[in-house]
Amino acid sequence: MKKEIFVTQPVLPDLEEFTELLKDIWERKWLTNNGKYHQDFEKALADYLGVPYISLFSNGTLALISALQVLNITGEVITTPYSFVATTHALWWNNIKPVFVDIEPDFCNLDPQKIEAAITPKTTAILPVHVYGNPCDMDKIQEIADRYGLKVIYDAAHAFGVKQNGQSILNFGDLSILSFHATKVFNTIEGGAIVCHDEKTKQRIDYLKNFGFAGETEVVAPGINAKMNEIQAAYGLLQLKTIDKNIEARKLIDNSYREKLGNIRGIHFLSENKSLDYNYAYFPVFINEEEFGISRDEVYTELNEQGIHGRRYFYPLISQFPTYRGLDSASSEKLFVAEKMAKEVLCLPIYPELDLEVINTIAELLKKLERNLNGNIVSK
Ligand SMILES: Cc1ncc(COP(=O)(O)O)c(C=O)c1O
Fold this sequence. Notes:
There is one protein chain. With 380 residues, the chain is an alpha/beta fold. β7 and β8 form a beta hairpin. α1 runs antiparallel to α7.
């Protein structure tokens, strides 16, 4: 049977090492609520990422919903339509109106040039996403936020470990959130975190993720249950041992894609940002139908038939889902770049154990499809 290749495949920790930690947890019988492994993992993670304070969460979505609560964000928030739907859902769950602003074409991140026009007296914050792990234009976004007195919360779900000029991009804005979902560069099966800059904010975050408890009998806020458990924290600690090696393996795959697909007309990549320590979270290609000859959806289907399952991240745009499409800011004319990118994008498989042969197969297939356009007979 042909092996099916998916867009990603999770890395798991060494089973024997994990079993040892499980035995310890079984003995301790402390399963959640800020246990030993939770504390150790939080500390190790802050060190690894180069951030002052981090709070673990049970997933990235609850981290995002809680981050908005921590800063008391209300009214309207400017955000991107080109993301995973959880970014906007987090606003909706807080009764906040999302205001979509278009993206720029170089990295598919929120376009700072278009933010100001979307600000109203009700705007309280900006919620950009470091899509595919590439940093937003954080200086420009901060400058606008400062001028209008807005908060900035980065959805950094894709940006684990990314540094710009040697500095973690998680240290920008008021808060950043991470996701450690199984599909991410770094996973704790499910999981997430909020990064903040001061102890007081961390304290507040920690209250909020534990029902608002500030002591045995004291509840200081209407918090939620978003705690990470001991088993996930122990798993996460082990994952830190191999993360550098795994990012290195991803880099080789990224390089190989660039080399093998680089000369195919109509197939475009995102620019390479030389100032980055990048995490190679995704490998999106953009298929220009006019130049390539067939549409992204046809390429997607052809690859699927070969057992290679790319994903159209991020199509459809969040602004096109029924909950959001009635908003003024969701109209197509205003989101021209995002619509184009969503129509052309296809994320190709990338994960540390990916067989490099798969890249050759994809390259061959794309070349055949391209020749097909020129009228030659294709044997599939
Ligand atoms: C950009 C973005 N934001 C938020 C999330 C939500 O994270 P989680 O799945 O951990 O809830 C994800 C991924 O799942 C994501 O890709």
